[in-house]
Amino acid sequence: MRTYSFIPALMLALVPGTVLAQAAPPPAPADSPAAATAPLAAQPETPPAPEPDSTATRHAPSVQVTTPMSAQISASMSGQLEKFPFRDGDHFHKGDVLAAFRCGQQKATLAHAHAEYIKRRGLLDVQNKMKALGQWSVSDLRSAAADEQAASADLEMASAVVAQCVIEAPFDGRVSNTMVHNYQYLSAGTPMLEILDDISLELSMIVSSMELRHLQPGTPFRVHILETDATYPATVSRVSGKVDPVSKTIKVYGKLTQAAPDLLPGMTGEARFGQ
Q: How far does the signal peptide extend, from start to end residue (predicted)?
């Protein structure tokens, strides 16, 4: 009978693994002296977060440069333009002639009305002298007075018509658009040009209504304009009288505290408060 020796060999193969398993020391518990004496990596100290500054973290609202005075000048009468000297971009002063019409007929009517008034005024003076001499008639005096008043009214009407022949600038400013040309025939009410005040500029912005506690007339701020890439000092000039209940916003207006001839209405930028 054969004797097999594979069992001792199998046992010898398992012995080293068993010995190794017994030789490996168990991990030290967390509260053991070895764990207590192990050095810990130094942790960097985190500085305390600074207190938020409500002024510094305030949103910078968009700003638009506007003008407080602008107007579209239309033809005051029907007729042909005789003088139209200004073009888009030109500056003008208050009282300058922006447009003038050919008014030969209207001026002739004015001259006739003036002559008629002088005539009626003279007849009334005669009646008053006759009254002083006691040689007068009540009906003649009243008729002369009525004729004088009618002639005066006609003179005023003719003067008003001639006054419409010339359109003068109502303020100092600049032409922003022209729609007609010299010698063109226009109907009354036809738009001719647009003008604006480019000196007294204003800043317009829409801010959250929660900012009203910080923004009052006189509050200083700085405005950065994109087109010029420059920053200008300004102050809040006025606040709108109504809050939009849907968006919870309100319009705020400002004015520049220094002259800025390089700014034009329509330029945009952002307002910076607390800087």
A: 1-21
Cβ burial of 152 (10 Å; 0-12, 13-18, 19+) is middle
Give the HSE-up count for residue 163: Cα atoms under 13 Å, Cβ half-sphere: 6
Q: Identify the DSSP state of 73.
A: E
CATH architecture of 62-69+197-272: Beta Barrel (2.40)
Beta bridge partners of 186: 79
CATH number of 71-196: 2.40.50.100
Residue 263, burial from CB neighbour count under 10 angstroms (0-12, 13-18, 19+): buried
**pLDDT tens-digit readout, 30-51:** 444 444 444 444 454 555 554 4
How is the chain split into domains, by residue range? Answer: 62-69+197-272, 71-196
Name the token pair of 132.
């002083």
Predicted TM-score (pTM) of the model is 0.68
